[in-house]
Design brief:
Strand content: 15-25%
Number of strands: 14
CATH architecture of the largest domain: 2-Layer Sandwich
CATH topology of the largest domain: Major capsid protein gp5 fold
Largest sheet: 6 strands, mixed
CATH class of the largest domain: Alpha Beta
Radius of gyration: 22 Å
Helix content: 25-40%
Shape: globular
Distance between the termini: 54 Å
Structural class: alpha+beta
Number of domains: 2
């Protein structure tokens, strides 16, 4: 069992566990920080949740919050900057991940000094990708049909936001992406335009770039290039964003909350010859200011 001893550090250290399997705060923080380092998650609002329910405000997204209240008079609910129109409530729902490391992998890496950090980074990356996939494609939160019903993601929330979020029927196949993005931009309230970004599927963003007719062979399609902007508004691409759909909103208007209490258990399965982990976490997604988002579909 000497291979297992080499894993007894960092996030996966037995000493990091309190009775019952809950990761100690410093180990939980380390894992959450690795997850939040994902390039897309660094652009949006991420929230460490100490409770399963948490209020989130978006003062950087909300606009026209200045008011004048006469002396001796209390501000009304509509005049308070943290009123209902400027915030949302996250309600974290439990999700689990079951990673496995084979005995042969541990033996092959018995002398690898980076094994612990590699395993930690691998687990965190897997968490981040799963969270992103669910954040873009989750359709419900009742677990009625597996993964996509673990939680409602941002696209689903925007589609259900009734009159608060403008919805635009686009047809890039017939009209091209430039015309479609112009439709979305015209529908966005002017006060949010300076902070907004188009959030698109990577393939759709590449198709738009080719439409521009200025692509030079060998030049990278990177976020800061002209090919990742439309009329000065940045385009943030992600492969998990559903193709043919677009969110136009300040990136910080999208919120991802992750509960800071993580339960981890680990066992060695003799018959399977593998180390089996169970991570039990809770997360939620929201759009803080629904009026600051335009949904193209």
């Amino acid at each position: 069992m000497h291979e297992l001893v080499k894993l007894a550090k960092g996030v996966i250290q037995p000493g990091d566990l309190t009775p019952g399997g809950t990761l100690r705060p410093e180990a939980s923080e380390r894992l959450i920080s690795l997850v939040f380092d994902d390039p897309f998650l660094t652009k949006i609002t991420t929230r460490r949740m100490g409770k399963l329910s948490a209020d989130v405000m978006a003062f950087d997204v909300a606009s026209r919050q200045l008011v004048r209240v006469p002396e001796g008079t209390e501000p009304s609910a509509a005049q308070i900057a943290n009123g209902s129109g400027v915030g949302c409530t996250l309600r974290a729902l439990p999700v689990q991940l079951f990673p496995t490391l084979s005995l042969s992998f541990l033996r092959d890496n018995a002398n690898n000094p980076q094994l612990v950090s590699d395993v930690e980074a691998s687990f965190a990356r897997k968490f981040a990708l799963e969270y992103l996939d669910l954040g873009f494609n989750g359709t419900n939160d009742d677990n009625s049909a597996g993964f996509l019903t673990l939680n409602k993601g941002w696209v689903q929330i925007a589609s259900e936001a009734t009159s608060d979020t403008v919805k635009v029927n686009i047809d890039p196949g017939a009209n091209g992406w430039r015309a479609s993005l112009k439709q979305l931009l015209d529908a966005l309230p002017a006060q949010y335009r300076a902070q907004a970004a188009f959030i698109m599927n990577t393939g759709d963003a590449d198709t738009y770039a080719m439409e521009l007719g200025t692509h030079v062979t060998g030049s990278a399609l990177v976020a800061e290039s002209p090919l990742r902007r439309f009329l000065g508004v940045p385009i943030i691409d992600n492969p998990y964003m559903p193709a043919g759909k677009v969110l136009l909103t300040p990136p910080t208007n999208l919120v991802f909350g992750l509960h800071t209490e993580m339960v981890q258990t680990r066992r060695f399965n003799e018959r399977a010859r593998a180390v089996e982990w169970t991570f039990d976490t809770a997360c939620d997604y929201e759009i803080v200011v629904k009026q600051a988002c335009v949904y193209g579909y």
